[in-house]
Write a structure and sequence with these properties.
This is DNA repair exonuclease SbcCD ATPase subunit. This protein has 382 residues and is mainly α. Among the domains are: 142-199; 206-381. The chain contains 8 helices and 4 strands, in the order αααβββαααβαα. The protein has helices at 2-131, 139-148, 152-230, 246-262, 279-282, 294-313, 335-357, 362-381; strands at 231-233, 236-240, 243-245, 332-334. It has a two-stranded antiparallel ribbon. A two-stranded antiparallel sheet has the order 3-4. A hairpin with a 2-residue loop joins β1 and β2. The longest helix is centred in the N-terminal third of the chain and has 130 residues, at 2-131. It is flat and about 160 Å long.
Length: 382
């Protein structure tokens, strides 16, 4: 038992010694670490101070360089401004002197011109007085004699001659004024006439453009009607119609084509007469040959295609006979029977539309319309 206690005590002593040694080692390590940290911190602080010092020196040098350059720039600018102002002042002085010299020269020339004009008027007056005197009397001598002696008849002759010259000059001036006024009135009249003609020309061109737009819009409307006949919905081509009423085809297609484009007579209005007369008749194209006029050819082709389609709408496919009523319409027609005619008619309409829209044909179309308007005026006068 005592042995165990002794061993325990000895072990505790050794453990205490080891702990003290570890503590001493730890304390020494901490002190060494603190010294290293202190040395590192001092090194960093030293480098930072050196960096700050170097940066301050660089900034100072840079600032001094900038200040030096700014001072040099200001000095150079002052020199340039001084030189520029000096030059400007000199130029302005020279310019003023030049202007004064020119004005003085102009005044001298103006005085010379006035003196010449006075002399010229004086000479002209003397010439007029001599021209009005048939005996070529020297007025100055007569007046001088009249002052020296009583020569009343001679003085009266001189006065009458002078009055005659003045009256003639006044008449010439008045005649000149009348001529100038007449010329001005003629010029104003000509200007009014030109302006009126220009306004009439613009008005006619505006009417022609409006008519072309009306016809091309009508063609678009007819083509939309063709699409609505072929398809249940014009934007869905797969939904085709099987049958349509003949009256629908007439009202949407053959009627408008006849009324607006292909009717070749004034009294034939069998299709419902949506307008008074077609362009074929109204523009006077019925008497023209298709070899001479492109539009005539296009309208005749459109007329034939339209007639072929119209015949298929009639009972028994009867053709129309001139001066007789239109044949009776079928109740309905199969779309497949008239589809090719509809497509061909659409193609012919597009050709007419392209012709109307072509700027190269504008003057030709304007000529058709002007001639048609002139013919209407002649008919009204009769």
């Amino acid at each position: 038992m005592n042995k165990k206690i002794i061993i325990f005590i000895v072990g505790s002593v050794f453990e205490l010694i080891i702990s003290c040694k570890n503590y001493a080692d730890l304390k020494q390590s901490v002190e060494q670490a603190e010294q290293k940290v202190k040395g590192f911190r001092e090194g960093v602080e030293k480098k930072v101070k050196q960096g700050i010092k170097q940066a301050e020196q660089k900034v100072k040098g840079f600032r001094e360089g900038v200040e030096k350059k700014v001072k040099q720039g200001i000095k150079q600018a002052e020199q340039k401004v001084k030189g520029f102002l000096g030059k400007e002042v000199k130029d302005i002085s020279d310019e003023i002197a030049k202007k004064l010299k020119e004005e003085e020269k102009d005044k001298k020339e103006e005085k010379k011109e006035q003196a010449k004009e006075v002399k010229k008027q004086k000479e002209k007056k003397e010439e007029l007085m001599q021209a009005d005197d048939p005996n070529n009397i020297n007025h100055a001598q007569i007046l001088q004699q009249a002052n020296g002696q009583d020569s009343k008849p001679a003085l009266e002759a001189v006065q009458q001659s002078a009055n005659g010259g003045q009256q003639k000059a006044e008449e010439e001036a008045k005649e000149k004024e009348v001529r100038a006024k007449a010329e001005q009135e003629a010029k104003e009249k000509e200007e009014r006439k030109r302006k009126q003609q220009e306004e009439e020309r613009e008005k006619r061109e505006k009417e022609v453009k409006a008519k072309i737009e009306e016809l091309t819009n009508k063609i678009d409307e007819i083509n939309n009607g063709i699409d609505s006949i072929k398809h249940r919905r014009w934007f869905v081509e797969d939904e085709k119609r099987f049958k349509v009423k003949a009256t629908e085809v007439r009202d949407k297609v053959t009627g408008p084509v006849f009324d607006y484009f292909t009717n070749d007579s004034k009294g034939d209005t069998g299709e419902g007469a949506q307008t008074e007369e077609s362009i074929y008749y109204g523009w006077g194209l019925t008497d023209l040959e298709e070899d001479e006029e492109e539009l005539v050819k296009l309208l005749k082709e459109l007329q034939d295609t339209r007639s072929s389609l119209r015949t298929k709408l009639n009972v028994g496919n009867q053709q129309k006979v001139v001066l007789q009523p239109d044949p009776e319409l079928k109740e309905s027609v199969k779309v497949s029977e008239i589809e090719s005619d509809l497509e061909e008619l659409k193609s012919k309409l597009e050709k007419v539309k392209n012709y109307l829209r072509d700027e190269a044909h504008f003057d030709t179309i304007k000529g058709y319309i002007n001639d048609a308007n002139s013919n209407r005026i002649s008919e009204y006068d009769e």
